[in-house]
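Friendly challenge for the regulars: who can give me the structure tokens for this chain first? No prize, just bragging rights.
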Amino acid sequence: MICVAQLMVVLDATVVNVALPSIRDDLNFSLDNLTWVVTAYSLAFGGLLLFGGRTGDLFGRRRMFMIGIALFSAASLLGGFANSEAMLIIARAAQGAGGAIAAPTALALLATTFTEPAARARAFGVFAAMAASGGALGLLLGGVLTDYASWRWALFINAPIGAIVLFLAPRVLNESQGAGTKLDLPGAISVTAGMSTLVYGLTKAASDGWGSTTTVVTLAIAAALLVAFVIIEQNSTHPLMPFRIFADRNRTGAYLIMLFLAGALFTTFYFLAQYQQNVHGWSPFHTGVGFLPMPATIMFMSIVVVRRLIPTIGIRPFLTVGPILAILAMISFTQLDAHSSYWPFLGSILLLGVGMGCSFVPLTMTAVNGVAPHETGLASALLNTGQQVGGAIGLAVFGTVFAHASADRAREIGAQARTAAGQSDIFVAGQHHAFEAAIVVTALALIASLALIRVNKVAPPTPAAAPAMAE
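First reply, four minutes later:
Bragging rights claimed.
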């Protein structure tokens, strides 16, 4: 049940990607605002994750898990009934807020519920598979629903699933004892406002340019808010994010690797879904099916291969091989053009699937390793924050690269830009440059792994904490 809830929350980050052309036509979205259908969810999710994870530690994980699922489901209904740009974007942000409460408490419940080594390994394998493949499964689900019903059903479908989870949760999950300390509201407000302003500034850079007054002022405000958050946390007696949690180099490395890999993964979903529809004329359903081998590969690697090999060869080899394969996948994506068949596309997404499948189980296990029981929610939240904020910032940055490269290509081809072939040429040029930038980001994931990860073999866990790992 926990893993189903996690899958529901994660796939909604991408379920509307494949439906973006339909949403644009139905609600008359401007091109500038269209990315906010995706970014509003990712940003609210990432910005509020620390707050959401901490509420589970303080007020009870099952209680906050249920509150998060209830908010997420209600927001999904609202989004399904949206009749304007603003209504849909607000609903997507509310979905993100619900997910920000549900996701970290779900992982914390998993870490404290499964204490026997074999059961814990299986649980972490399935959870990591859901987290890693949820995005690609979202493309498939969005494609099926958009083609055979409406893009609105990509949101409506969450309501009955959420109702089932809410019915089962009090019957199968034990409530945790809250820590009872005061919630750090100044810290929660400052970090959420800072991250939201940061991604808004990056998005404005894509449309207005890096030198525009709006972009410069917004990014300056974001920097000030994030500096304020650090100062607040240093002086708080009950910080939202105690900095001691970063004292473990392996955990810090896991957070950074997740941040960088998520930026590349979200970029892949966003651009390639539109590439297949806009350049090759695929239907939403066809696009979703075309992506299906990727989540299948991630699940196979996470549940069958990596989980079983970690006790034998350790964590570090997977966190080296995974980013290397992601780099190779980004390089292969730069070779796709308007005349590419499905086979190079398939080879590229399989390569990325193996890379992500190698990475997500080790990252999940490393993030909650050795954390005190009362901070399990925070450790889980930081991993989810890396995934969601990395995705949101990656989409904004790579969207900026895409916009400038596309505009340059449109000027180069002149009148041809108004033809169908010209539009495909422009899109491919922008996508090519975006994936070139993604190569750099995946290389940073590899550097973080080589510099920080020292975890080797998994040691027997203690009952109250996540698995301890031997150096």
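The chain has two domains: 2-183+240-452, 184-239. Confidence is low (pLDDT under 50) at residues 458-471. Your move, everyone else.
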